[in-house]
């Protein structure tokens, strides 16, 4: 019994994002998925006693510093990503999306860039204004980008938290949409970002 053709069958050479953009996507995704819980759990001083009881003395500060380091790395990679996005444009969709869905996708992708860069800058500025140490993976101290001002630090870190709530919500919607494309629509959108995808329609 033959199955009804899917949009995937109709598009054997599905276009994919440039390999550099795919690599950056998955590296940043892993870092964000790691640093969100580090932020939610290990930047709250109420959690210091059980963090130290579970992971040992000094663990709270180490995990806090790891959060800041990963956040600064995300910022650097997002700037590279902005450049890569302009250098290697997104390929056209193999199966055109409904216009509203394409608009929503474009908006949510742009929102990721703005929220991730904004959150990292707010975190960096908030820590600078506190002022607290900024050791980057124990290798060097990042410069302070704002003069000491405890009240301003509180406002900047409050805004940082709001941005990160928005990022967490967007990640949930984004992953849901990616899986919907893969499992329900089967239209090749997931494969545009899959690690081993072949580039069908080059934008070089
Ligand atoms: C885009 C990357 C980042 C993400 C996704 C992120 C995520 C988070 C999250 C989820 C929280 C907990 C918010 C809350 O529950 O109140 C948090 C808190 C915090 N983050 Fe980040 N963060 C990032 C980058 C940074 C950077 C670059 C720094 C500093 C260099 C930083 C410093 C802090 C600090 C100091 C807190 C505690 C704020 C407070 O106690 O009010 N974060 N972050
Ligand atoms: C958790 C952090 C994540 C962030 C911040 C993120 C961000 C982004 C951004 C900004 C894009 C637009 C393309 C680009 O400029 O690179 C994108 C595309 C994409 N992402 Fe993610 N992503 C994340 C996780 C995931 C996960 C876990 C999946 C799979 C389950 C996924 C699947 C996809 C797919 C399939 C596309 C291509 C969509 C298209 O071409 O229209 N992403 N992502």
UniProtKB/TrEMBL annotation:
Q: InterPro entries per the record?
A: Cyt_b561_bac/Ni-Hgenase (IPR011577), Cytochrome_b561_oxidase (IPR052168), Di-haem_cyt_TM (IPR016174)
So which cofactors does this thing need?
Answer: heme b
Q: Transmembrane region positions?
A: 23-42, 70-89, 110-130, 157-180
Keyword terms of this UniProt record: Cell membrane, Electron transport, Heme, Iron, Membrane, Metal-binding, Transmembrane, Transmembrane helix, Transport
A biological process term (GO) from this entry: respiratory electron transport chain
Per UniProt, subcellular location reads as: Cell membrane
Pfam annotation, one family: Ni_hydr_CYTB
Any one Gene Ontology molecular-function term assigned to this protein's record: metal ion binding
PANTHER family this protein is in? CYTOCHROME B561 (PTHR30529), CYTOCHROME B561 HOMOLOG 2 (PTHR30529:SF1)
Question: What's the family?
Answer: Belongs to the cytochrome b561 family.
Its name, as the record gives it, is: Cytochrome b561
């Amino acid at each position: 019994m033959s199955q009804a053709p899917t949009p995937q069958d109709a598009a054997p050479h599905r276009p994919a994002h440039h390999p550099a953009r795919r690599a950056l996507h998955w590296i940043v995704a892993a870092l964000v998925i790691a640093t969100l819980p580090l932020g939610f759990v290990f930047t709250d001083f109420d959690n210091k006693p059980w963090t130290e009881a579970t992971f040992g003395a000094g663990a709270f500060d180490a995990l806090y510093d790891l959060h800041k380091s990963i956040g600064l790395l995300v910022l650097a990679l997002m700037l590279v990503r902005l450049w890569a996005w302009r250098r290697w444009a997104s390929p056209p969709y193999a199966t055109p999306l409904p216009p509203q869905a394409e608009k929503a996708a474009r908006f949510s992708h742009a929102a990721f860039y703005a929220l991730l860069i904004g959150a990292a800058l707010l975190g960096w500025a908030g820590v600078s204004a506190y002022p607290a140490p900024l050791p980057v993976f124990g290798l060097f101290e990042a410069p302070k980008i704002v003069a000491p001002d405890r009240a301003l630090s509180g406002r900047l870190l409050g805004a940082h938290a709001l941005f990160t709530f928005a990022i967490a919500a967007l990640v949930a919607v984004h992953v849901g949409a990616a899986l919907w494309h893969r499992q329900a629509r089967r239209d090749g959108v997931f494969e545009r970002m899959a690690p081993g995808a072949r580039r069908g329609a080059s934008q070089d």
